Amino acid sequence: MTGSYVAAIDQGTTSSRCIVFDRNGAVVAVDQREHRQIFPRPGWVEHDAAEIWAKVRAVVAGALAAAGLRADELSALGITNQRETTVLWDRATGKPVHNAVVWQDTRTAGLCRELGGTDGQDRFREATGLPLASYFSGPKVAWLLEHVPGLRRRAVNGEIAFGTVDSWLVWNLTGGTDGGVHVTDVTNASRTLLMNLGTLQWDPEALEAMGIPEAVLPEIRSSAEVYGTAVGPLAGVPVASALGDQQAAVFGQTCYGVGEAKNTYGTGSFLLLNTGDRPVPSKNGLLTTVGYRLGGDAPVYCLEGSIAVTGALVQWFRDQLGLIGSADEIEPLAASVADNGGAYVVPAFSGLYAPYWRSDARGVITGLTRYVTKAHLARAVLEATSWQTREVVDAMFQDSGVRITSLRADGGMTANGLLMQHQADVLGVPVIRPVVAETTALGAAYAAGLAVGVWRDPDELRRQWRRDVEWTPRMPEGEREREYGRWRRAVQRSFDWVE
């Protein structure tokens, strides 16, 4: 072990970051850079994977410089990433064959309906834990193979590699065209609609149905092991973890016990409940997913409620409507009124995810009167996140029988105290933010550090977790349920907009 520092690459939907942590789990240095959001058509969302790789290299260099560290002082490097976003690249040149198709992209909605046939959305749910939806990677791969000229032939011949962003980064970090390792971990693989939850291997039936050749697929590995050694500026550093961003937050929040839950408030929001060593099938619109797997240990499973638009709704309020100049202006604006004035904003910009999975839904604002001001709308924008989370928590209880007693919260929106208080109010349980808010990157660092011996076991990590702020419920139960009923009616109004 060369040192007690672990770096984590956090490659997200809008930006890439590198954070260096010390042995106590404290942040030593951070560097962050945004990348372009590409919108070729309505409902289509793309990223330039080459640009992402360039930004990742830049933030790693920036974080090391800010920390005053050399690469050989890092014990390990971990990766956490936006999930489901799909990259196909040429193994010989290392260049992407198309822009990455982002998790938010809905171009495969029609293909998913075709694949469902008479079985509908649940065709692959028993094997993969997931509904057939445009959210996941498998249909995105199938679409690219069908629509990029000559790509299917090249894929069958083994010339093309597929991966979620973790695979793209590990491959490049470990040499790229010169011996790069083509792997993914179980958490990212479990988001493709292509991995069997029981075997933790690629599912032959799903591959055949979507026309995806095995030659393009990465090897599925655990979330915490040394995949390879970095080259270039990070030469010699073990690349020792990969977790999808939401599973990394579970790990960073130390939700290692059955029934422990966290919600990450970012571009979207993602609530995960630890269900232990057994996958719990959902009958209420949730996803059954792998939470993490440490080396050769048994995998830990989660129920997940994926909400497509939360922080992105604040961005829309700022950028498309121009009602605020910066995201942090929304809290004082919303706090200037006592309530939402009867208005509700349902942000179904590209359909609704959990617990509805309605690709036909589109965003609506309901309850408008002449009384409603931009301050009321600002409050309704924030409250949309709380209400969507409440729907997911209710579905989790119906599936698992586990009623959460508190919610660990992380992500950028936790800086908004008004939102966090409303979240506690509508759930009726305390909402807790940890001292280290960067729990996604911390989870990747923890997993990498475990793989190389920086930390002994998860119990040592649990002892490091500290609470920063706790919001407790203040809203009377009658008001909570009355407001929730109005929200549910507003959601119904968003259905059936796309035929």
Describe this structure in words.
With 499 residues, the protein is α+β, with helices and mostly antiparallel strands. 33% of the residues lie in helices and 23% in strands. The protein has a seven-stranded mixed β-sheet. Helix 9 crosses helix 14 (439-452) and helix 10 runs antiparallel to helix 12. The chain is globular, with a radius of gyration of 22 Å.
Number of helices: 16
Radius of gyration (Å)? 22 Å
Distance between the termini: 58 Å
- Which residues sit in consecutive blocks of at least 5 with pLDDT less than 50? none
Query: What integer is the average pLDDT?
Result: 93
Principal-axes geometry comes out as globular
Q: What's the main sheet like?
A: 7 strands, mixed
Strand content bin: 15-25%
Alpha-beta classification: alpha+beta
> Order of strands side by side in the largest beta sheet?
17-18-16-15-21-22-23
Number of strands: 23
Which bin fits the share of residues in helices? Answer: 25-40%
Question: Which helices and strands occur, and which strands form pairs?
Answer:
Layout: E1 5-11, E2 15-21, E3 27-34, E4 46-47, H1 49-67, E5 74-81, E6 86-90, E7 100-101, H2 109-116, H3 125-128, H4 137-147, H5 151-156, E8 160-164, H6 165-173, E9 183-185, H7 186-189, E10 195-196, E11 201-202, H8 204-210, E12 219-221, E13 224-229, E14 238-244, H9 245-252, E15 261-265, E16 269-276, E17 287-292, E18 300-307, H10 311-319, H11 330-335, E19 344-346, E20 364-366, H12 374-400, E21 407-410, H13 417-427, E22 431-434, H14 439-452, H15 458-464, E23 467-471, H16 477-493
Parallel strand pairs: 1-5, 5-14, 9-12, 15-21, 21-22
Antiparallel strand pairs: 1-2, 2-3, 4-7, 6-8, 10-11, 13-14, 15-16, 16-18, 17-18, 19-20, 22-23
Helix pairs in contact: 9-14, 10-12, 12-13
